[in-house]
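Fold this sequence, please.
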Amino acid sequence: MTPRLLILGIVLSLQARAEDKTFTTIDVDQAILTRAIDINADGDIVGRYDTVDNVIHSYLLRPGQNSSESDFTSIDFPDAVATGMGGVNGCRDISGWYRQAGGQIRGYLLHQGEFGLVDFPGAVFTRPTKINDRGDIVGWYDSADGHHGFLLSEDGFSSIDRPDALATRPNGINCHGDIVGFYTSPEDHRDHAFLLRGGEFTSIDSPGSIRSEATGINPRGDISGHYTDADNGTHSYLLRRGQFHSFDFPDAIATRAIGINARGEIVGYYDGADHVHGFLRSSKGDERSNVNQDAEHDDNLRQCPPTACSRFSDTAAGFHRNRAPFF
């Protein structure tokens, strides 16, 4: 079946400036909720929006000179009752999840106009999050023995579990294979952000937080995320070269950073007085230059390998193409 293609309006408004950063609100026309989930190096933004009938849809927003309808594409998996977003890479490969009428949640990859299924073997629930320029996908799944993270590469699926954690949920992966996310500790039963590099887990909790989540990591090792403070306020952060930089969308009730690209542009969503809005945080300063700066915790320059554009074959473990043209 051919996926549904829905053209709607997108509302971009220059909302405010904070320090040398510019915040832009992203709203899908007539939606009751809009979230920006990821952004690639070209400025393509993917996200989620909910309509008045409480149906979840995904979208791709290509950068342009204005907010014309041709820049915006709605994405719905065939016959799904909900289509969620995970991430987008430099080839416009899109990872995400969808919910079937029976309630089961499964993963998808949208590559060159074709949907493919992403299901961890034996899982009852598979939810992909981000995808890097090599085509590697991370996410999490539920099985009979609990909640686990996963990596899907050209070698197939592998589980990601922080030792002794009650649950591990990867949220982002860069072109070097560095993975970020959060885990639930058995000691305090709280969620803590992590960086997984070279097989080693490192906790990266924000100062003063009671809950932390890392959501994205770019090639130079900059990490985006959000945290909850002791007053139950939700704020966003950028972790760069070992330094936390907390930020909020101006006048927002809560701010959650979800994705970051190689230029340091960050997308996410915030709670306003009326409903949830997506946002883009950008800068004309150093974040747009020196894209391949030193990575976090690494003094050596780390260049990304050439983009491979979803190099999975039709027989890759757990990956099956559903040949239906989209774009």
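Residues 1-7, 286-301, 313-327 have pLDDT under 50 and may be disordered. The chain has no helices and 27 strands.
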